[in-house]
Amino acid sequence: MQPCTTALDLPLLVEGMLRHLTFVSDTHGYPSGTNGYVVRNLSTLRSYEPAQDRASAWDSAPPKHREPDEAILEHERKRKVEVKCLELQLKLEDEGCVS
Question: How many angstroms separate the CA atoms of 97 and 76, rounded?
Answer without folding.
Answer: 29
